[in-house]
Write a structure and sequence with these properties.
Blueprint lengths: L8 H9 L10 E3 L7 E2 L5 E11 L11 H17 L4 E11 L5 H18 L2 E9 L4 E12 L14 E5 L4 H16 L13 H8 L5 H9 L6 E5 L3 H12 L2 E5 L7 H9 L4 H7 L5 E6 L4 H5 L4 E8 L5 E4 L5 E3 L4 H7 L2
Parallel strand pairs: 4-5, 9-12
Antiparallel strand pairs: 1-2, 3-6, 4-6, 7-10, 7-11, 8-10, 9-11, 12-13
Helix pairs in contact: 2-3, 4-5
The structure holds magnesium ion.
Amino acid sequence: MRTEISTLGEFGLIAHLTEGIKLENESSKYGIGDDAAVLSYPSEKQILVTTDLLMEGVHFDLTYVPLKHLGYKSAIVNFSDIYAMNGIPRQITISLALSKRFCVEDIEDFYAGVRLACQQYHVDIVGGDTSSSLTGLAISITCIGEADKDKVVYRSGAKETDLICVSGDLGAAYMGLQLLEREKTVLKGEKDIQPDFSGKEYLLERQLKPEARKDIIEKLAAANIIPSSMMDISDGLSSELLHICKQSNTGCRVYEEHIPIDYQTAVMAEEFNMNLTTCAMNGGEDYELLFTIPIADHEKASQIEGIRFIGHITKPELGYALITRDGKEFELKAQGWNSLKEKE
Ligand SMILES: [Mg+2]
């Protein structure tokens, strides 16, 4: 079924997509339906705002990303940034520019993904806009969240001797992307062959349907731990760690053997003949949390499932060191996943 967007018109389309949306959060005073949404936050809160622009062909490839997944992921990456400030996401606005290639059903799929993410993370959709585009799809999402005034965590707070922690495991989303890219090349022109992803589901899930680490933020709060610095890992561990060190004016020492990597990631790296540590350090799109805690919180933090200690913060003069399994020392460099891709 293909319903042209013009049959609904812009207002009809928005009304259709946002039908049945109920506001869950107290701070969402008024959502869609007027010139602006109205938010009301208590004065003891800090309000966090983050925004993200995703362009077809640059940030996503619709030949292998289903629109529902894209909607889900677009929302999740914004939630992740709010959690990375030790906050709670509460509202989002979604703006889309669509070329003629897209029909009402496509946008329904995209919105279904966004709405699912919002339901699962208790975030309200309070506004948005749609426009036509000459080529492709552009997605702009803004997310608003809150944090207690004294609990916002910045990138700049890391102190010498603090422990460096990472949630979950790294490199799987990047491996999922490699896998999808490979199947796309293999399948070009060969309509009868179905891609074989068995045993690699985790990698695909990490790439196509990532989650934000709400659970870690809640566990840290329950354990009474306020990280000294924090950010989410979207461009790769190396790059994010350098952001923390530079903004905190510190150095760091990270141990290769402690970097958390899933078994499927390791198998895939071998299949692709890629260096596993490089993938985990620079892969990107993991949406895990990277944070530092005072050494005094080590005991409490080690009780929390899903956190790994990968090293510690040092004096700035000591630089950014990666210690390999065989005890060699290298300088950490930010490759980022984009440049990693270009080299291939
Ligand atoms: Mg971030």
